[in-house]
Specification:
heterodimer, A: alpha+beta, Immunoglobulin-like, 47% strand, B: mainly alpha, Cytochrome Bc1 Complex, Chain D, domain 2, two-stranded antiparallel ribbon, disordered N terminus
Chain lengths: 137, 380
């Protein structure tokens, strides 16, 4: 019988997905992007989503240490257009939420094209940069 | 699918040199880029930082003040002296001339309500703050708070209009009266909106897949539009319904303002913005949430800002010659030639890798100029 098999598969997926969400960023509702780093995982969403060229937006994100990695001491967010060799015209400020998640305010992508969004996660052992590429029309 | 295809119709323009009426085969991606330049006009929105934004009495007061030369120290220069309706709300001069000649070209105030930053260097973050600046600049109108407030208080009609707009007569505080004058001027300028253009009709025809209507847009303008959103990549900065991203770039125009003087552009603009008591983080913002102050709060000064100037809107651009921050290019054809032959050595060493010489043929340059001319609303 096919129907029960499908139901079992969906059920397994739901359990797995819930487990993955719980692994990092469970305090974030609707996080849409994940960056897998060597020591950290970052999950984030833009506010609003989607974003528009030339309009300010914020990021809600969580940083999760992998096994044996220490908790981050600070996180810095920035972005740039590598093909144009310039960054944003604004310097975002990161704040910590009571939930343990972070909010970065003050971002703007002022041109269409490829943007590299970077999270610099600093710990006593060093800083890891996690990068997500976004394409804006 | 919005691809219209080449639609040589039965309609043929009359005249020996007429081209067949058609729509170029814009791809889906090109069509999306074209649609991003509208719709026009965008909905009117109140400026929350200005409590009299959208207030009819304030608009009427602002209209009167805009034309009133008593706002200047010599009683001869009004806002309308440089922002002339018959010149696209610019002045047609290479460099603005008030009490003295300044280093920059007069920008149009049309569609100003849609801007984030004001002035070529963006030292203003609201229309009302920007309205105050030339009144106080000794090279432009050269007035001061005391003179400005006395002018309002000394004119019964202005006092009446002021009371209607602000709910009380001018107070004894000169600075407050001056800022309110600026807010009334802003309320009036928010009403200066350019009309719909042949491009807008074409854009909307594409949006509703109406090829017959789209075909009324001249082919030369369509070819120019194809360059604008294609090889020219003009829409990287001239994006959106205003044809501007509202930000700042170095496009290789010299920033020497005179012997021994440079115009630092955005670099100095950010410094002045941050230092201004009249910015959106200051005490005169009427919005306690500071909801429109995001840019002011987070803008960062970088070395590359030196020599950057604001991307101007292109609506009604054919009316606002000459061009660039210093008025150094006399015609739209000169502007197209600048980008076609741009000297990359003039860009900053750490400048942006966006600009490359376009090497346009004469026919391509003609088409690009035809497109720019089609951004005109045809008004008086």
């Amino acid at each position: 019988m096919n129907t029960p098999r499908i139901a079992i598969s969906i059920g397994a997926c739901l359990v797995l997905c819930a487990g993955m969400a719980g692994a990092c960023g469970e305090m974030l509702q609707g996080a849409t992007r994940t960056i897998e780093g060597k020591s950290y995982v970052v999950v984030f969403k833009t506010v609003p989503d989607p974003i528009a060229v030339g309009s300010h937006f914020a990021l809600d994100f969580a940083v999760c240490p992998r096994a044996k990695a220490e908790a981050p001491r600070s996180v810095r967010v920035d972005a740039g257009m590598p093909e144009h060799r310039h960054g944003m015209n604004y310097r975002p400020v990161v704040t910590t939420r009571p939930s343990g998640a972070y909010r970065a305010d003050g971002l703007m992508f002022h041109m269409p094209g490829r943007w590299d969004l970077t999270f610099d996660v600093a710990a006593t052992s060093g800083t890891e940069r996690l990068t997500s590429t976004m394409q804006l029309e | 699918m919005r691809l219209l295809g080449l639609a040589f119709g039965a309609l043929m323009a009359f005249g020996a040199a007429a081209e067949p009426v058609a729509v170029l085969p814009f791809s889906d991606a090109e069509t999306r880029r074209i649609l991003a330049h509208g719709p026009w006009p965008p909905p009117a929105e109140r400026d929350p930082s200005n409590r009299v934004s959208g207030n009819k009495a304030a608009i009427a007061l602002g209209a009167a003040l805009f034309r009133d030369p008593r706002l200047s120290s010599n009683g001869a220069i009004a806002c309308a002296t440089c922002h002339r309706a018959d010149r696209g709300f610019a002045d047609g001069l290479p460099k603005a001339h008030g009490l003295a000649t300044v280093d920059r070209n007069t920008p149009s105030v049309a569609n100003a309500y849609l801007q984030r930053w004001y002035g070529w260097d963006g030292a203003g973050d609201s229309l009302w703050a920007q309205s105050l600046r030339p009144i106080l600049d000794p090279r432009e109108m050269g007035s001061d708070f005391a003179r400005l407030a006395a002018t309002v208080r000394g004119d019964a009609d202005l006092v009446r209009r002021y009371r209607q707009a602000f709910g009380a007569p001018p107070s004894s505080d000169d600075e407050t009266v001056a800022v309110n004058v600026a807010k009334a001027l802003a309320a009036f300028q928010e009403t200066i909106v350019t009309g719909r253009t042949p491009f807008d009709d074409f854009r909307d025809a594409l949006a509703r897949d109406d090829r017959a209507a789209a075909a009324r847009y001249p082919l030369a303008a369509q070819r120019g539009l194809a360059i604008f959103i294609g090889q020219g990549r003009c829409n990287v900065c001239h994006i959106g319904p205003r044809f501007s991203n509202g930000e700042f770039h170095d496009i290789g125009i010299p920033f020497f303002a005179g012997p021994g003087r440079v115009d630092a552009g955005r670099f100095e603009g950010i410094r002045r913005l941050k230092a201004s008591r009249y910015n959106l983080l200051g005490p005169f913002n009427d919005d306690p949430t500071r909801g429109t102050a995001t840019g002011t709060r987070y803008v960062a000064s970088e070395h590359r800002n030196f020599g950057e100037f604001k991307v101007p809107s292109l609506r009604n651009v054919a009316r606002t010659a000459p061009y660039m921050h210093n008025g150094s290019l006399a015609t739209l054809r000169d502007v197209v030639r600048h980008y076609s032959e741009i000297d990359e050595d003039r860009l900053h060493a750490d400048g942006e890798r966006i600009l490359k010489p376009l090497r346009l043929s004469k026919a391509e340059s003609d088409d690009l100029v035809a497109f720019l001319a089609s951004l005109d609303d045809g008004g008086p």
